[in-house]
Amino acid sequence: MRIAEISTPELRQPAQDPQSPHHHHHQHNQLISQLESKIKQTEAHPANAPLPHSLPSDLRQIVTHLTQLAPFPTVNNSFKLHLWKLSYRLWNACVDLSNAAAIRSPSSKTSTLNVVKLRHIAADMLALAVHVEGVPSPLIKSASFYYKTGLAWHDLKIFDLASTCFERATDLISKLDIKKLSDAGERKLLLDLNLARSLTAWEISDKNLAITLLNRSKILLFGSPVHFRALANQFLALAKTVLSRTENNGSSFNECLKLMNEALELCEKGLSVARTREETVEIKELKSKTLRFISAVHLQNGEFESVIKCVKVLRKNGGESGDHASLPVLAMKAWLGLGRYNEAEKELKSMVVNKGIPEGVWVSAVETYFQAAGNAGVETAKGVFLGLLGRCHVSARAAVRVVHRVIGEAGGIEGSKIRAKVVAELASDERVVALFAGETVAKERTAMHAVLWNCGSANFQLKDYETSAEMFEKSMLYIPHDTENRVLRAKGYRVLCLCYLGLTQLDRAQEYVNEADKLDSNIICAFLKFKICLQKNDHGGAINQIQTMITCLDFTPDFLSLSAHEAVASRALPVAVAALSNFLNFYTSGKPMPTTEVILTSLSVGTQLTDDKVTTIDADLFFIYVLNAYEMHGRLNNSETQQHLVKSFAGTKACSPEFLLQIGLNASQGPRFNAEVATFALSECLSGFLSSPSPDYQNVALIVRRLITIASIHKGDTEDDAVLSLYKQAYRIMVGLKEGEYPTEEGKWLAMTAWNQAALPVRMGQIDVAKKWMNVGLELAKKVARMETYQACMEDYVTGFEKKFDKPITGESRSQLVQ
């Protein structure tokens, strides 16, 4: 609101002589003139335009110069009065700008900041001219400017400037004798100033000062109930901020209780001085609110007995505070903490008759009670929920929350049957189903269906088909009977068919799959009918269903593969033969047949069932299958599956080094090169060949050469230890062999390539690397027949190399090669 300006006569300024001795007087007038010019500019500024940034800084500079001339002589009262009026004009201009900003869309933070800066300047101007004759309570008025400016800074969360304003106001008021103040507004200003200063100190984490200021405020109450309530409210507000912290430890609880007890004591004293009914009611409400928060603190701290005491006191007081919605919740949680479930159940049931309890509160209470009581509390939770349905409007969302809580996150764990039974009764109650009628609750209806469906799925995985079927049946209540949901209803019928198949209630299963077929006829319905025929030992019907499957629009050969497996498992060999025959018809007619495993697996199982002597797949046939499967996955660029396939094959009895060699060679050549598979297969077959009593060194040499080639290409680095280790492994293989036993040409290749590996390091000046490779090449050459000439050349080069770089090679220990 605008502050009324003081009505004064026009100020008359006599002409100044520049050479007059009253130079300061001239400066005062000049600065006042500048101030007035800027204030006029502020008053004339359009309300819908942001203030220029230069305006607050220009005014601040003028006021700073004026401050340097203070204090002003007492005789110069007209000057101070003029400054006082200018201060009020600037303040009122700020009020107009703020009001205009509030009417239109909220102004930017920068614009608001500039207005608050102008308010601060107005407060400083008023403080400069504070001692003006003829103005009543000038100190109070100046302090009120600082107080209101401090509140504005506090709202902008600029707490240092807020604190500065509150301190300036406190300094001004400290010059007064507060005992002589009789005006209620002035007394309230003293209290509000202290409370605001305390809150700012709390925000900047100066808690000691905040509490000290609140305690000082006790001498500013003046026996007013309004003051008692304001101070108590402030103590409670600080306590609530402590309570809301994330780190709730013993010290914070004690601090919180101390502040709340202060608020409670102030409420008691305020009641003793209250004179009107309105004052008494307001303080009683605050007292009840404080007691409820004290109860919450005790509850959070695990002091359940204290919670019960507080609740009893609140109920004893009666009135609205005794029927507050939080009391039964607090009491119930406290009784649960004490392990007295009967009393907790009574509190929970009392919520049914209390119409003032919001839906979210009692739903949360039901969840808490059920979480503590477990399976023993499901009947109570159901009774409370159904009782609330008859008492007040319950939303569909609340019903979903209660059902979800009763089921639990894992619907099929311990006590699932008890929970599922209660949920089934809740979900099938007509009043609950009615909550989900209409398009406005479509989202909640979908959520309820999902909760029940997931519960059924969890029980199905536990093979509790009876409970699972019941939950799926109840979920069907939450699927609308319209065209858009035909597919979803058909899905529900198919799942119910599976449940009753598990229960071997074949007629019931047949009914459900027929219903599903009416709504959404597809391959799955045909396959389920096939399974029912198998369980009824109706082989003719099963074979007919195979033909039906083939005619389905969404048919894939995989269903014939699956049908063959099912028939073999049911020992229905004619049906299995029919399924496999139809499967092969697709192959012979040129149609794609993505699943080849079924032929081998069914052949294997079939021969076991017919007591044939052939009980395993021939190793060569298995190898051909693996090789073909490897090739197909290669064309699909599925290298991970290729690795898994080869590693699995390597662990079987059918695997041999020759098979692995073939796989390794295939993987290391051609357009679909696979270094990982090739390295694994060749390494495994190398170990297999070497473990033989009479190794085939021709294949060994081939494998070593191929591994070195793969490692060199794949790693791309001559310094790689993997390549060097392969040469060392070859050297260890050759040690102890007779002349010519290891292929001579392969031996020469090893020696020459190892020696040539040193060429690049020599050129690059990598002496140690070159020395390492020359040493390996020379030692390999010594193990190969008819390499004496090469060996002599190598030794000559080594001798020259040692002289040039002073790096002995031939004298090094040969342990390098046999590590």
From TrEMBL:
InterPro entries: Spo22/ZIP4, Spo22/ZIP4/TEX11, TPR-like_helical_dom_sf, TPR_rpt
Gene Ontology BP terms: female meiotic nuclear division; male meiotic nuclear division; regulation of synaptonemal complex assembly; resolution of meiotic recombination intermediates
Keyword Transmembrane helix carried by entry: no
UniProt-annotated stretches for the region Disordered: 1-34
Gene3D superfamilies: Tetratricopeptide repeat domain
Record-annotated membrane-spanning stretches: none
UniProt KW keywords: Meiosis
Pfam family, one: SPO22
Domain of life: Eukaryota
Presence of the UniProt keyword Metal-binding in the record: no
Protein name: Protein ZIP4 homolog
Organism of provenance: Corchorus capsularis (Jute)
